[in-house]
């Protein structure tokens, strides 16, 4: 595979993005004190991006005795890792295990399926081992189906994941009603290894633990260029350089301009999150009493989970973001009240948004960028558990382990033609989702 000889560009710098009005900002423990890069340093592994992928890569490299350096353009958790809903989901959005095996072949496909199957347990085990304070609750993840015909989706997924050892359960209409506290759904399935976390707290916690393990994490240090010099990768920031034997790009949907072939193979989609006021005890006993994470089969997704202080975090998508916060308060408020009448008139204390990196087939992309250099892109709304597991695998591959032995379904980058146009018209895909949601397909 041909190496990337040199990439130049000026991505957004730290300190210019407005802090989102997120619940996570209000409740996460403070970040570790981290410097900006002001010197020339050398490392075994250079990691670009201080989100879940990059921090997991740095942590696992450092724990294996290798010198890792992370360059984050802004602050830890400023991108998708700190703005998402915090659901820990050990599946993909659309492709099922048999789809992945058909795409990547029996050997690579099954290894990738196993990584996804174990991704939630991997994350929660890491949180427990390191003692990360991120409001982690491994209460399970449930996907209810919103129309009678879609019960086939739950049956197919429970069967395929269950046959591969996942702790899943198929639920009939009575079972899903008991689990959720609403009769709005026709059945569903559950994976008991899932759950939810405070994502910004997890990102900050991973940064602190990576530093404790021996990694160096630099914030407000955007990468201006990356080039291959001899057998080393060299990254330049406004005030320093990093020279390293290996490279992991962990920016996903926020990919730096220095790697346009990665940035342009995904379509960033704006996703809104919102947190209610704390629910009272009676409401908590009747609404999702087991505190599972929930996201259903609507294309125009309905989802929710509890927080440590008993708020529901839900959200949605909009065709046009104008007055988005106020409009979504009405839209999502009505949706929740239709399922749970006791929530009628509920106040939303926080509304924020962030971008999800989508691919056209809803499948993540994993690439070798050159010698000892790896990346992935396209979380498709499943980035929390997947990012941490893939960050580990990318680090191992970059540091010399045979990628054929890892859960890395490598492909060539496929930049999307007219990507900028797709980003502008992407929100109108919501119309198709809404049309499909009222049909049995």
From TrEMBL:
Residues 44-396 form the FAD dependent oxidoreductase domain. It holds the Pfam family DAO. SUPFAM superfamilies: FAD/NAD(P)-binding domain. Transmembrane segments: none annotated. The keyword Oxidoreductase applies. Keywords: Oxidoreductase. PANTHER family: FAD DEPENDENT OXIDOREDUCTASE DOMAIN-CONTAINING PROTEIN, SARCOSINE DEHYDROGENASE-RELATED. This is FAD-dependent oxidoreductase.
